[in-house]
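Let's study a protein:

===
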Amino acid sequence: LEFRRVLFRSDIALAPLALPWPGLVAVVTGGVFTQLPPVQGLPLFGYLAIALLLVGSIALMPRAAALLFTVLAKRWHGLTGSLSLARLANAPNQAAIALGGVLASFSLMVAMAIMVSSFRDSVDDWLQHLLSADLYVRVQNGGEHARFGAIEQQQITQLPSVARAEGTRHQLITLDPARPAVALIARSIDANAPDHSFTIVGDSIKGLERPVWGSEAMVDLYGWTPGQRVRLPIAGRLESFTVAGIWRDYARQSGAIMMRIEDYRQLSGDVNVNDFALWIKRDASLQSLRKQLDALPFAATLEYAEPGEIRAVSLKIFDRSFAVTYVLEGVAMVIGLFGVAATFSAQTLSRAKEFGMLRHIGITRKQILKLLASEGSLLAGLAIVAGFILGWCISLILVFIVNPQSFHWTMECHIPSALLVSVAVLLLLSATATALISGRLAVSGSAVRAVREDW
């Protein structure tokens, strides 16, 4: 033990003697900034909170490393482990250099993985809830002006395989000339159980005479709240409605409004629909329904898809949109490993005399390489644990602060455990191998030449 204290005496002076108050202040300030509203629609305080959490956590790493490795050193009895823990405990600033890059890259990777996984799972749940019919039919290249008239609707609803059919009428309306148009969607909705038709966020008011349900974007952009009276342009006239609740919509950032199709038809006199949701009879099949649709006089103008097809296409588009995110995460991890390699290479070369002294007192090259591997694994392990915690905190800001303020929708948090554990194990093994490879050059020379300047 006395030899170990003398061996690392020069490193003891590098240990911080006071608590890293700037790091604590940065972390606390970052937490406070998450409560501030967006600036001109941009979540600037959310981004600033993420930056402060990163800076504060990196600043706290020397003290965290010193405390952790000191406790472990007192309880470790093996020679190689004791030497590794002693150096890391007494040279926390040097350890923090290697920790910083891995911590930053891994925490950002964790945060982005949680955010993307939360978004994808929320979209998937939303699609499953929204697409409850067996088949969806619309006019090819359908838009607001592509409609089914009364005759076409009757022919579709009277098909032998159709048990139930629900039409949807959608159009764009302008509530504020300075903002994009809002989607008005009229469909069959049970006012007493609207959550059967779409995903309700919060509570819904029942028993209203003219209820409407606004998307989450209507809350942020127009200040809608349940129970509020609103006026909407229907067929060129302003009609009064009551907001019955808020629903989740991942398709329209500018806002969407749901209303009962019977209310829309009563006020507008418009009986057309843009698309149909069809449920088949128990003794029928989708193939028979498709054949019956193909036999209609206007079949050439139709396009239809099953819920699974729509969901698969939507998720494929989602994965393609976020593919660059996974590439950037991989690049960040590679950069972090390069930082570990550079740090360990510099440190091991500067410790050639230390390794020479260890070899003079009987420690073999294999034990020194084991010492370096243990240092690399310990540092990487600490960075991974801290990165998990920091990445989880950053992901909460991304999921519950940045995304709602940027896109006006919320999502449920989901942690991709299998992916994160796999990446953590790969990072730990890579960091250990990197430290081991970097240290081979430092112990390749003879022990006499390593300490000859001290003679």
Remarks:
- The longest strand covers residues 162-173.
